[in-house]
Amino acid sequence: MLSPILLIPAVLNGLLTGAVYALVALGLTLIYGVLHIINFAHGALLTAAMFAAFFAHKLLGLDPYLAAVGLTPLFFCVGYLLQRFVIGPAAHGEDRNILLVTLGLAVVIENALLYAFRADTRTINLSYGFNVVEVGPAFLSVPRVIGFGVVIVVALALWLLMRFTDTGKAIRAVAKEKLGAELSGIDVAHIYAVTFGLGTACLAIAACLLLPTYYVNPHAGNAFVLIAFTIVVLGGMGSVAGALLGGLIIGVVESLSGLYLGESLGQVGIFVIFILVLLFRPSGLFGERA
Amino acid sequence: MKSYGGIALIVALLACVPLLTASNVVLNFMVVALLIALVGQGWNILGGYGGQYSFGHAAFFGTGAYVTAILQVRYGVNAWLGLVIGIAAGALVGAVTGALSFRSGLRGSYFALVTLAFAEVLRIVASVAPITGAGVGTLVKLDLRWEAFQFQSRAPFYWIILAFVAVSLLIVKLIEGSRFGAYLVAVRENEDAAKAAGIDVVRVKLTAMILSAAITAAGGCFYAQYFLFLDAGIAYGPWISVEALLAPIIGGIGTIYGPLLGALVVKTLGEITKLMTGHAPGLDLVIYGAVLILVVAYAPRGIAGLLRRRP
Fold it and tell me: Of A252, B162, B169, B192, which sits with the fewest C-beta atoms within 10 Å of its C-beta?
């Protein structure tokens, strides 16, 4: 049962998957930490980014890693505009309304993709898509190892941005004390939109990292977003370190429960963790009590 | 329409529809619209009056549907008895999930998240468990006798779902006039103040959730008998969770006729979209989502709020 020959590859693969989960969760937790809303459109936006990366490859012949350079700023703008001109004004500042608006956005985006591209599942073929690298007893997929590295870099860059730039300081100020930030001259609506844009930009990167080894269809993002919710809740809403660690933990849990329970029940394992954490420790491992 | 007379009038008018037309298209449209009105009324009790937005009413709908279908197919239980047990099972799921969530103090986004997660767990389990037919789905055997809750024509189905809707309207009317209803609205408006005023908040929310779940489960039971086929994506899929909240929000959240009005509007919009574009998958839902955003932005009290300006 617990043979290391099986266990070590499962754990390593879980860590690699978990890194991408962590990136998706990072976007979600950033938005939650500042705007105090749960973005139910996160999954649909991830799907949209995956389609964008897919067509960048199909039509322009761009490698997904190269496409990320263009898609990341593009999705930053998409996120910025959505928050500034749709979610913000429509919600009238009420939490219940924000829930509904982001849910409405999710329904619109997901089904617009379904209408445009049908339910077909698409994949891309890359010369290096199936390359593996041998680490001890495990064979790891090269694109996923690259993904792991990129996630670490992105997390570090985000941390530097939050720590040392004026925008980062403003974001932290708004997250801590919205009214005080507004009084000291920070444009709160702008900072909200920037934060939402950063969260969405994380999705564009995640999409480009996923595409070499994953498929895309109009519901592809949903698989990730519920996992991302779990991670965010587990790591503590709004906690960046929590999202990273939570992502890695969930990746390993999924991999191990997949190994012992089978693919589809492995997913149930994640939801059970999710519900248990929500019920018994809604502040998560790193979060402050809500 | 302040009294029970309003309900009687609306139900009586709707009851005439099958006498005016025998068109299967019209009746089918009305049956589906009333089904959504029923499920939406279930959501409305908890979300509209109680302010607890559930994103996972599929959990109750699917439980009602599966229990009715499985009892008939695997255990030979009579369909009407199956209906009663199905409603009870849905209420039980509501009681368990509600007790867990409310006792842990989950509110707002957290409550929406946990209900979504419960529905997803049930969907995944139903898609692999042998008793639900897993990937193949469950087919209720064709048996067109009223004893088996199946009918030759659509009219009896129509009257039955209309009766369900009538009962749900009566329940909401009773709630509106009761002490419990006042507590529920107090919890929606300010939970902490309600608690401070001595209201047992958890108990009020739990009661609302059980009622809400039972009504939604009744919709699921009806679905199983009307369409005679279920799989995990139909019974526990996100579509029903979305339609359940769409109808009351568009029609008028926290109002007695909101879900009925909203369901008719939503389904009409859906049909118009289908007529104009053919059966393009997804486009009707794009419209639903856009309407949801527009209603939240410009008409937070829904169509009912637009019709009757409130202070």
Answer: B192
Structural domain for A150, as ranges: 4-122+131-280
Q: Is the ipTM of this complex over 0.90?
A: no
Contact, B301 vs B253, CB < 8 A?
A: yes
Shortest CA distance from B119: residue in chain A: A271
Establish if A230 belongs to a structural domain.
yes
Contact between A100 and B53 using a beta-carbon 8 Å cutoff: yes
| Shortest alpha-carbon distance between residue A85 and chain B (Å) | 11
B272 vs A: CB within 8 A: no
Nearest-Cα residue of chain A relative to residue B51 = A96
CB contact under 8 A, B290 and A89: no
Distance linking the first and last C-alpha atoms of chain A: 40
What residues contact B131, with CB distance under 8 A and at least 6 apart?
B70, B74
Judge whether A286 lies within some domain. no
3-state SS assignment for residue A40:
coil
State how many domains chain A has.
1
Q: A215: exposed, middle or buried (C-beta count within 10 Å: 0-12, 13-18, 19+)?
A: middle
The verdict on residue A275 lying in a domain is: yes
Q: Over the stretch B190-236, which tens digit does the pLDDT of each residue have?
A: 999 999 999 999 999 999 999 999 999 999 999 999 999 998 888 89
Which residues, in sequence order, are CB contacts of A156 under 8 Å at separation 6+? none
Q: What is the CATH number of the domain that holds A106?
A: 1.10.3470
What pLDDT score does A266 carry? 67
Q: Is residue A190 part of a domain?
A: yes
| DSSP strands (E only) in A88-242 | 132-135, 138-141
- The string of pLDDT tens digits covering residues A13-71 is 889 989 999 999 999 989 888 888 888 899 999 999 999 999 999 888 888 888 999 99
* Strand, coil or helix: B147: helix
Encode A108-149 in three state secondary structure: HHHHHHHHHHCCCCECCCCCCCCCEEEECCEEEEHHHHHHHH
**Residue of A108, A71, A113, A111 lying closest to A90 (CA atoms):** A108
CA pair distance B302, B300, nearest whole angstrom = 5
A103 to B242: CB separation less than 8 angstroms, yes or no: yes
Is the predicted pLDDT of residue B2 greater than 60, yes or no? Answer: no
C-beta separation of B289 from A101 below 8 A: no
Question: Which of the 8 DSSP states describes residue B197?
Answer: T
